[in-house]
Amino acid sequence: QVQLVESGGGLVQAGGSLRLSCAASGRTFSSYAMGWFRQAPGKEREFVAALTWSNGNTYYADSAKGRFTISRGNAKNTVYLQMNSLKPEDTAVYYCASRTAPGNSGSYYYRREYSDWGQGTQVTVSS
Fold first, then answer.
1. Does the CA dihedral 28-23-109-82 come out positive or negative?
2. Cβ density class 113-122: b for 16+ within 10 Å, e for less
3. How far is Cα 100 from Cα 89, in angstroms, rounded to an integer?
4. pLDDT of residue 74
């Protein structure tokens, strides 16, 4: 099992930036890829971005393309989500997640492909 702890959320004005961090511990060697998801009040949890540890391949939701960047630290235990040009509709709790197996590119978008989850960090974007 991989333990995940998110940080970096907060309140920001529209157009601003935030950088989220996800620290992984435990069986990190079993992690194949990391993803960021978000959940707004009354909505389903949705995919934001993902990154594979082995080759650094990245995947983004359409809503994140051009504004958000997922990246990794030097060690296999930290992943970041740089969020620029934030909009009020980006307001949500952001979760990082780990998956242990590879898959086709479409599989990274699905919650069911991820086995370990953090507790989430709140991001609020004011208009």
1. negative
2. bbebbbebbe
3. 31
4. 76
d(CA 34, CA 78): 9
Cα(42)–Cα(26) distance, rounded to whole angstroms?
A: 32
* CA neighbor of 125 nearest in space, from 6, 8, 10: 10
What the block records as the tokens of 79 is: 């992943």
Q: What are the residues whose beta carbons fall under 8 Å from the beta carbon of 88, sequence distance 6 or more?
A: 14, 125, 126, 127
**Phi, then psi, of 2 in degrees rounded to 5:** -110, 130
Q: What is the pLDDT of residues 40-97, one digit of tens each?
A: 999 999 999 999 988 889 999 999 999 999 999 877 789 999 999 999 999 999 999 9
Query: Where does the chain have alpha helices with state H?
Result: none
Q: Give pLDDT, residue 65.
A: 97
Give pLDDT tens digits for 102-117.
888 888 999 999 999 9
Give the number of other Cβ atoms within 10 Å of residue 110's Cβ.
Answer: 12
